[in-house]
Each structure stands twice: as structure tokens, then as C-alpha cells.
Here is the input.
Amino acid sequence: MEKPESLFETLCALQASKKLPPVKSWKPERTGTIDIRIAADGMWYHDGDPILRDAIQKLFATILRLDPDGYCLVTPAEKLYIEVEDVPFLAIDMEVRGRAPDSDLLFTTNMDDHVLVDTEHALRVAEENGRPRPYLHVRDGLEALLTRPVYYRLVDEGCSEGADYCVYSAGQRFVLGHT
Here is the structure.
């Protein structure tokens, strides 16, 4: 079994080697909509039926973009708007290196992105019906909702500082809530 330190480094290296299409620079003239929906539980649907092949979901995730007027799948030739019930991704696992305040938090999403929490990939906690809804910025405005087990693990890494309950990653402090 790999040591946690080498697993952390392996996941960071995997993400660094990942090449995503330059969707931000694509400005296709043809636009429309397609009946694709990403449910709040992370499941992708097309024409009401689940997309069961992970490889198709992961391919679509690489061309997903958030524009001011909504989520869309983008190619150089076409931009198709889709429905996203909450956010497009789920954070399904977390690795921790070090101890606060010198810790690093690395999340894995359901689309196999590995995201180190830092100033560009911040954590935020919204509240819905009095319950926390923790999110992680993945890339270019796209976020992942932390699954409940991952959120509980994150809370275990936190500490109280005055009235704040916070975690640290990459030298940055992220407030999860108030005590």
C-alpha cells in the first residue's frame, strides 16, 4: 500500500499532467440547447435517461463551461446550453498532508479532477435551510459540492479560532463556519 505522502504527490502530478481543451477561448457562432441535465446528486442525464458511461460524463466535463447566461458544452463549432441543478461536480474524496496551519487539502471529484485547495481553488460554505452546503472551486467558475462524508472529514481537520471554525491549505485560511 502506498504511503499517504506518495499518494498525495501522485494525485497532484496526475492533475498537473491533465490537458483540458481551451474552452475559455472558443467562441462558436452556432448556439443552442441540448437536453442534458446534471442532477444535484452528480448524475448526468440525456433526454431524461441517465448517462451510465463514466467515460462519456468525463468527456463532457472537459468541455463544460460556465458563461454569464448559464452552463454549456462548448466545442470550436458549437455551444450548447445544459441544465445544472446545483453545481456540476461532487468532491468525493479528500487527502490531507501535514497539520494545520501547515496543511494541504487535496480533493478528488467525481470527474477525476484532483484539486489542491488554495487561493484559486477556494472552499466556501453556503447555507440552505440552516444546513451547511460546502463547495470547492474546481476551475473557471465550475464548482464541486463536497459529499457529506468528505465534509465530515474536512470538519475533523478544522480548528476553532476565536468565533471562526476554519481549515488551512496551501498557507491559506478558509472559514467553514462560526462557533
